[in-house]
Amino acid sequence: MNARWILSACLLPLVTGCISTHKTVVRDEARVSVTFESDAAARVFYETLSRQPNCGQQQESRTQFSIPVVLDVERKVVTGPNQAFNQAVARSDTNHDGVITESEARIFAGTVN
Ligand SMILES: [Ca+2]
Q1: Which residues face 99 on adjacent strands?
Q2: How far is the CA of 32 from the centre of ligand 1 (A)?
Q3: From ligand 1's centre to the CA of 20, what distance in Å?
Q4: pTM to 2 decimals?
Q5: Does residue 9 sit within a domain?
Q6: Tens digit of pLDDT per residue, the chain (113 long)?
Q7: Which domain holds residue 34?
Q8: Could you give the count of Cα atoms lying within 13 Å of 89 in the half-sphere of its Cβ?
């Protein structure tokens, strides 16, 4: 009787299975409207933007809850690429006129490694 009870207790997790949920939510914002003074300004800006480490998605928060063997729930919130673009525009357009000049783009390029 005792051995049967122990065996049942050991096999219970295998019978019940593990409920596992992993969800990623992308939180993004609209791109700000900006124009470039010249093609060179746009090229310098976009080359610099692509070199930034947080150019793509960036993890914002992570929530995890688990009961070993039975339940595993994970929820991640990541920011979309528009946030990096908007931050780059805010840093580049130093006089906030909505136009990025070549000199503003080169100054922005100098601030990114
Ligand atoms: Ca400007």
Answers
A1: 35
A2: 13
A3: 49
A4: 0.65
A5: no
A6: 677 777 666 665 555 568 889 998 888 889 999 999 999 999 999 999 998 876 666 767 888 888 887 888 999 988 888 988 999 999 999 999 999 999 999 999 998 87
A7: 18-111
A8: 17
